[in-house]
Automatic annotation (TrEMBL):
Disordered: region residues: 155-191
Active-site residues per Swiss-Prot or TrEMBL entry: 208, 241, 321
Alphabetical keyword list: Hydrolase, Protease, Repeat, Serine protease, Signal
Domain PDZ: 377-456, 500-578
GO annotation terms (biological process): proteolysis
Database matches in Gene3D superfamilies: 2.30.42.10, 2.30.42.60, 2.40.10.120
Organism name: Prosthecobacter fusiformis
GO-annotated molecular function: serine-type endopeptidase activity
Protein name: Serine protease Do
Amino acid sequence: MRESRVDLSWEEGRLNVAEERFCVYNSFQQSLNVSVIGSAQLRILNPYSNMKTTTRLTHILTAAGLLTLSVSPGFADIKSPPKLAAGEFHSRLLTDATPLPDGGQLQMSYATVVEKILPSVVTIFAYGGKGEETPEIEDIPPQLRPFFYRFFGEDGIPDTEDDQPRGGQRGGGNGRRNAPEPEAPLKPNGVGSGFIVSTDGYIMTNNHVVGEADKIEAVVEINGVTRTYVAKVIGTDPLTDVALIKIDATGLPQATLGDSDKLRVGDIVLAAGAPMELNRSVTQGIVSALGRSGMNIVRRGRTAGYEDFIQTDASINPGNSGGPLVDALGRVVGINTAILSRSGMNAGIGFAIPVNMAMRIVEDLIDNGSVRRGFLGIELEDLDREKAEMFGLQDQGGALVRRVTDNSPAKEAGVEVGDVVTALDGLRVDGSAKLRLIVSARKPGTEVTMTVLRDGQSMPIKAKLGELPGSGPVAQTEESSNGFGRGGVTGQNMAEILPGVTVQNLTPATRERYDVPQEITGVIVTKLDTESKAAAMGMEEGDVIMNVNKNPVRAVGEAREMAKTNEKTILLKVYRAGDTMLFMVNKN
């Protein structure tokens, strides 16, 4: 692969790219496009792809390097690999689940560990893919503009990819204004990492590195000899950010896979990859935490992903994505995926996907071409301390069932709205994210045993898992309506419980208007302020409040009396279009 070298320098807060030296192609530069998703969320991506990172001000995925310094003159055709079953694929892997030796020994060097893992580490170049519009700098919140000026300078963000040099100078070198440009070399949108898991060229990496690229190159270095291969995507899973690609080669060095379930906080780990396109770089740290979820790092549109991250202080920077996180014996225990940072660079908080979780995904991709996940059909809510006390729990563990979908495995098994799931197959459930993760890791058709708390009593419930439809979550919250949609109905304001909500007793007219069956009793929401807390919680016009604090309600007056309690939290059971669900309202 031919290489282009450039000189970089900072000047007055801007990154300058000098003319190239000793190279075949003219120099080029890349910058970042930025689109504001909301007041607390940004999307950062390269201008020529959607190799992106979604953040909540601080979460920055490390898929694409800020600068790409290598180019490729073209691609060779690659043959599709023969169909391979997951069992056969697994037999080709190197695995070692031996526990680490006890601590207390002084380690003077990790050179042996590094020599073991580095030959299997590859640098990945992704080309093509869809781009997105770039906003004006005025669209970016003022408090965030200094961050972007650091990369783009005071002139702001370029509007289109045409604002970026793409090879030669405009107009050529003969002085004619309209002279044709020399053909620009194809350049990568981003740089990531990966690691070889079989001698015949299977490579594990992140979905956000390769997921929507048109072309992929993998650079392998063995005994000082570098070779570039065109890679084919075998399968990707956006909901865990795992991907499997393959190159047409044999006799390759392969990484040894460890057992991430045996990791402990405090274990030494090393992160390998190509940060900032510095190939074959290694950093060292420890496991800072295990089982990190709810980070909102992995998503697909509105659908939350499945997160169970290893947290580490081993330095992870742009370009490390997809590279291996290894233990002190050189065994892969995770896939480097994201960092928590205010600057986009390492701040000592990095996240890796556990290798055991990644292998389950990869084997599904090989066998089925997609990931098959178990499905219960329940909507869940986490419990804070006050809610836990209301349900008689000693701690904040468990997941509250807010809704049970009709004709779902949970419905058939007898799960009810208001149940609190505290364990599944003996595994403790400490929140809704944990239950989603446990269920999704099981195959459709698997029989599971849930431990639920109902009316203060613990009881087992057996259920046979269905298959998660499409790519939606195990428990997906429905969108709220815009309110006032069926207007014209008057009622009484429920400011004591829910400011911005107007309710009315159920009458033949309201039953007909809102299509409420005769067997449903309660008070109906006839007006809803779209800016209210109730709307933000997900309540809708037409909801029927059936119970307040587990007591049946037949009139507005009853609801108000039941809400007069010293409890800080009020529990509402609501009927909506054939389903029942729970809302927990903080009176403060």
